[in-house]
Amino acid sequence: MIDFNDVSFEYKSAGADGTRVETGGVSNINLKIKKGEFVVITGESGCGKTTLIRLINGLIPGYYNGELKGTVTVLGKSVKDTPIQELSGIVGSVFQNPRSQFFNINTTDEIAFAAENQRRDPEKIRNGIAQTAKLLNIERLLDRNIFELSGGEKQIIACAGIDVLSPDVVVLDEPSSNLDRKAIEHLAVILGKWKEEGKTIVIAEHRIFYLKDLADRMLVMKDGKITEEMDAERLKNMSYEDTCDRGLRCLSLSDLPFDKSVISGGETIEFRDFCFTYKDKKHSINIPELEVPQNSIIAIIGDNGAGKSTLARNLCGLEKKCKGTIIYGGRKLGYRERRHSSYMVMQDVNHQLFTESVGDEVILSMASKKASDEEKDGKAKEILDSLDLGRYMEIHPMALSGGQKQRTALASAIASDKPIIVMDEPTSGLDYHHMIQVAKQIEKLKAMGRTVFIVTHDYEFIWRCCDFIVHLKNGKVARSYEIGSDTAEKLKNSLFGGEQYV
Amino acid sequence: MSKSWFKLDPRTKLMMLITIGLIMMSGTNVGMDYALRLVCVTLPFVMLLTIGNYRAMIWYVLIFFGAVLFEGLWLTKINGVLNIIVMTFCGVITRFGPGYVFGWYVVRSTSASEFITSMERMHFPGAITIPMAVMFRYFPTLKEDYSSIHDAMRMREIGESVKNPFVYIEYILVPLMMSTVQIANDLSAASLSKGLGVNRKRTHICQIRMTALDYIVVVVMAVMLVLSFVY
After folding, report:
1. A429 pLDDT exceeds 80?
2. A282 in contact with B at a CB cutoff of 8 Å?
3. B64-118 pLDDT tens trace
4. CA separation for the pair A88, A176 (Å, rounded)
5. Is residue A57 part of a domain?
6. Chain B partners of A315 at a C-beta cutoff of 8 Å?
7. Given phi > 0 = left and psi -120 to 50 = alpha, else beta, which region is A449?
8. Among A77, A289, A309, A316, which residue's beta carbon has the most beta carbons within 10 A?
9. How would you classify residue A244: left for phi > 0, otherwise alpha for psi between -120 and 50, otherwise beta?
10. Which A residues, 80 through 99, put their C-beta within 8 Å of a C-beta on chain B?
């Protein structure tokens, strides 16, 4: 079905310091994927798993430039010699970022798009859409503006488009990166359906827990090579240590060790009458009272639309109409004071890097007018060094990798001297090692005396570094509690399945 | 997109846009020209009404008539530089406003696939229509990005520490452009992998056809153009 014959590929690109970077390429890949097989490719960032996906759907060499050796054939067609438009009829693709994979604004048009491009009969496409919508239970998403949909819903629309096109092969590149638990479950159902229909599925993914019952085979990659192959049996029996050793995300939370020291007592931050409704009346939060420990790491969890981001925005004082206050260190903070004392590291860090160099970026955050330029420089260097960014001081922030950009934003947060730091999904799309790295940086923030709020779906990450949970549901605090050895079971239950706790 | 009860073909809309643009920019304010301009001023109002965009409609009426009133009543009473500034400002609104608002209506009421389909019918090359269709899709993204960047600036209190407006604009534009490049890249890859090609014919589920109404509107527009140039 899919055949890699001694395939090597190198991207033509330059890194932050101008030297040629060769991350993400692959070398000497030999791989045969049978018809109807469900193959998961995993491994650390830059290991080449995305490259394999692009070699199957023809984006390499059709779109990404580089040096390609060897041959890839899909259904007997050589990918190199087949125009990508033709290949797109037999290979459907789902990408990582739900925001940037849509050509249309209307959802129904988007679902029809790939099939239209293959010159399918309009009447058949229309019937196909109706059938797919029924089967995937997404009738309510038809004929809507895509920009009104959540990330998870967008990803489901992408899948629906493929379902209508119904190609023999489906490739997915980290489709779950931006999804919450419910959306991932929905995605898993769709993948299961495709598997039943006998489609060949190849999926590159960090978060493999939702795939362990679907996968026929898992490939672990490192530095552009396939280092290990596992069959379904082996995959199901992987222990927590096994996944850690390979730099993989855990397969289930149940075997996560709990080794955090629990701190109790100390000062608290109080939320009072924290109510806010958006103009569209759709999302709102209503928190009359909430107390969280100061100088700790607080996870804000809940399903999409539960009000996590709304709470974060209000906490940072980005909504003027929010009447509530928080009491921090005995002081009452209204929205304006909150803006002075909090700093948000956004999910898309591209939106918050403004200057020409990493050093300037950090200095921009230093509010103090008294400090001389040398002092600021010195302090910036110190902060950047602590985040392994010292040697990038003169580099343009946009030339950095995603993780480096995020650390630059963190460095600015540290430089701002603001006591409250809010992070929106800091670990979405990160592999195990990078997740641990972020967790360590957040622990450093805590050691500096900051209070860190983290909006996240990443339960392994919560497990690793958070002290306190605020669980939102329909804009209200459903539960809030400290993570300790006694509440660990409760947390597992409320995070996975146990609906009675939610 | 299908919510409108008064649906015109994209080709008809284009014809209307051209007519409005030409008549509003040329011509005078007397006789036949005046009547034609009156029609052109009313058209965006009516069309916004058909897609139920009342907010834009009200803004259009307020701003346009505000400019007309300013021009008519106030302009004679002031002189000097202020006169020139007000005249230019009002002139731009009264001459370009209706065309601009109608263009906005076209964007709002036409989906990307309707647009591509009707352009294909008129034998426009894909190399022109596809980038234009991407533009349609890009505006909402731009809006999202802008508001997120604006938030980031507020949070970092950049408005307070940076007084130079050019630096301020740079701070907005740099992340906006970076984000645009990123999205454009991803979007191109995604569109290619969904089989979009410049020289490929495609089918379409949207029903695009010229109805009797379309023909009537096109004829009326043509008559208006002829009148405007003959008189």
Report:
1. no
2. no
3. 988 888 888 877 777 788 888 888 888 888 888 999 999 989 888 888 888 888 8
4. 22
5. yes
6. none
7. left
8. A316
9. alpha
10. 83-85, 88-89, 91, 93, 95, 97, 99
Q: Which of A220, A251, A282 marks a domain boundary? A: A251
Contacts of B148 in chain A (CB under 8 A): 346, 348, 351
pTM: 0.84
Residue written as tokens 């103009």?
A279
pLDDT in tens, B38-70: 889 999 998 988 888 888 899 999 999 888 888
pLDDT single digits (tens) A147-189: 888 888 899 999 999 999 999 999 999 998 878 778 888 899 9
A398: left (phi over 0), alpha (psi -120 to 50) or beta: alpha
The answer to whether residue A125 neighbours chain B at the CB level (below 8 Å) is yes
Chain B residues with CB under 8 Å of A100 CB are: 182-183, 186-187, 190
Number of domains in chain A: 2
Best probe of the B interface among A53, A56, A113, A310, by most B CBs < 10 A, is A113
Q: A353 and A493 share a domain?
A: yes
Over residues B123-152, the mean pLDDT reads 84
Say how far apart CA A351 and CA A157 lie, in whole Å: 26
- Which residues between 403 and 462 in chain A have a beta carbon less than 8 angstroms from any beta carbon of chain B? 412, 416
Which structural domain range is residue A175 located in? Answer: 35-64+86-251
Residue A80 lies in a domain: no
Do the Cβ atoms of A93 and B195 come within 8 Å?
no
Is the CB of A151 inside 8 Å of chain B's CB atoms?
A: no
Shared-domain flag, residues A246 and A330 = no
* Dist CA A63 CA A54 (whole Å): 9
> Is the interface score ipTM higher than 0.85?
no
Q: Residue A274 and residue A325: Cα distance in Å, rounded?
A: 7
Q: Which of A222, A251, A280 is the last residue of a domain?
A: A251
pLDDT category, A498, cuts 50, 70, 90? very low
Q: Do the Cβ atoms of A112 and B156 come within 8 Å?
A: no
Q: Are A50 and A193 members of one domain?
A: yes
Interface contact B179-A348, CB threshold 8 A:
yes
> Nearest C-alpha of chain B: how many angstroms from A105?
6
Name the pLDDT band for B179 (thresholds 50, 70, 90): confident
> What CATH number should be reported for the domain holding residue A429?
3.40.50.300
One domain for residues A272 and A247: no
With CA atoms as reference, the chain A residue closest to B156 would be A365
Please write the tens of the pLDDT for every residue from A263-292. 656 788 888 888 888 777 677 888 888 888
CA angle centred on A193, ends A190 and A199, rounded to 5°:
105
Confidence of residue A22 (pLDDT cuts 50, 70, 90): low
Residue A478 covered by a domain: yes
Asked if residue A294 and residue A366 are part of one domain, the reply reads yes
Q: Please say whether the beta carbons of A468 and A480 come within 8 A.
A: yes
Q: Are residues A272 and A349 in the same domain?
A: yes
Whether A58 is covered by a domain: the verdict is yes
Residues A453 and A320 in one domain: yes
Interface test with A, best of B53, B194, B206 (most A CBs within 10 A): B194
CA B34 to chain CA mean position, Å: 23
Asked if B111 and A105 touch (Cβ cutoff 8 Å), the reply is: yes
Contacts of A399 in chain B (CB under 8 A): none
Contact (Cβ atoms closer than 8 angstroms) between residue A163 and residue A186: no
By the 10 Å C-beta count (0-12 exposed, 13-18 middle, 19+ buried), A247 is classed as buried
Q: Token pair of A466, please?
A: 């958070």
Q: Give the residue among B189, B169, B167, B187 at the shortest CA–CA distance from B179.
A: B187
Q: E strands, chain B, where?
A: none
Residue length of chain B:
231
